[in-house]
Design goal:
It is a single chain. The chain is of the alpha/beta class. The protein is built from 13 helices and 15 strands. The chain has a seven-stranded mixed β-sheet with strand order 2-8-7-6-5-3-4, sandwiched between helices. Helix 6 links the parallel strand 5 and strand 6. Helix 2 crosses helix 9 and helix 3 packs parallel to helix 4. It is globular, with a radius of gyration of 22 Å.
Length: about 400
Amino acid sequence: MDLRQDFPLLVTPEGKQLTYLDSAATAQKPELVLQTLDHYYRHDNANVYRGVYSLAARATAAFEQAREKVASFIHAEPDEVIFTSGTTESVNAVAWAWARAELKPGDEILTSEAEHHSNLVPWQEAARATGAKLTFVPLDEDKLVTTEAVLAAITPRTKIVALAQVSNVLGNLPLNVAAISDAAHRVGAVVIVDGAQSVPHMPIDVHAMGADFVAFSGHKMMGPTGIGVLYGRRQMLAVMAPFHFGGEMISHVDAESSTYKDAPQKFEGGTPPIAQAIGLGAACDYLERLDMSEVMAHDRTLGEQAASRLRRVPGVTVYGPSEGRMGVVSFNLEDVHPHDVATALDQQGICVRAGHHCCQPLMRQLGVAATVRASFYAYNTEADIDKLAAGVMSTMEFFHHVAH
């Protein structure tokens, strides 16, 4: 597939193409999303729920239609979709509003050292506040979390299982969340999935997965920044306390007490990210036209080809699965700092990310301070891999020449 013409930022007015390989950080936006945002602000801009005039009614209808689109995209019900600012807020919402009320000393929170900080630090704080204990899934020789290791690590003391379905550093093939959920539920544990790197890149059916909560971000799936989703099983949302208090989430307010609406409104106090949600709905429309099975196959092909090509460059170490991966490849060039590699590639028109990728414990497991990361999406092509491989080779030759 070649979708570049749908993404204005990828093609300059002069016809030059940008080699954008940082979609794990944020995805580029198709014209459909940009036009949807522009249309909302030009024609429907009003606060939702609070007005009876036609402009407000249109804004409210578009906002709730966006919720329906997101629900359809992940095979959920609309009242199971809570709009947040992103994956980070979604995970924190569960850690604050559910976990702190349910955990007690001796309970265990099962996670891993491969997690993004957004799915680790909230659980550290929840454990500290409640007396619960963090436990960690052992990583395999490639420093990956495997479904088999997760299943073996669940015990009768496990109360929460919090894991990324796909690593933002190593690009593992997705965990079998359905099997993990079955095992966790048998011991009375709740499953929270960090779907930041999976929901944008593969077909998702949250009911079939069986997870209690799934968190993901709109900007990583071609939507706007500032919008994310917390999917929660209806039974979980019914017992979970709200975590934002204010306008529109209330049912009745007295001077000294209040009652709250049902989900999802009880979790969306204040003016919600209206335009962003509507833009995310448009992103769902765009991705569904592509077919998410094809998006996943395309991303896997690019990730596997890129890993194979980079391994042939002298001095390059590629991290992660030896076979089969999603569209994420982390690597280092011997004796060259990752930031220098990224800077050299930028000078060749190639956008990659360098750093610890908000995964410092995983970096320590890998024995490095940082890596270079190239990540792919539906708008990337094999030509981008050719340019990446050539860019890394020329970077290696330059630094080797300078060193000698």
